Amino acid sequence: MSHLHIPDGVLPFWLWGLGYVLALAIVAYVAYRQQRTDLRRKLPLLGVMAAVMLVGMSAEIVPIAYHLNLTVLAGIIIGPSLGFIAAFIVSFILALFGHGGVTTVGLNTLLIGAECAIGYYLFRLLGRATLSRLQSPVLAAGLATALTLLVTTSALIGIVGLSSVDPGKARDTGPLDAATLSLENPFQEGVITSRLLNPEEEETGDFYTRDSGVSLARFAAVVYLLGFIGWIIEGTITGLIAGYVYRVRPGLVTGERAL
Question: Is residue 200 in a domain?
Answer without folding.
Answer: yes
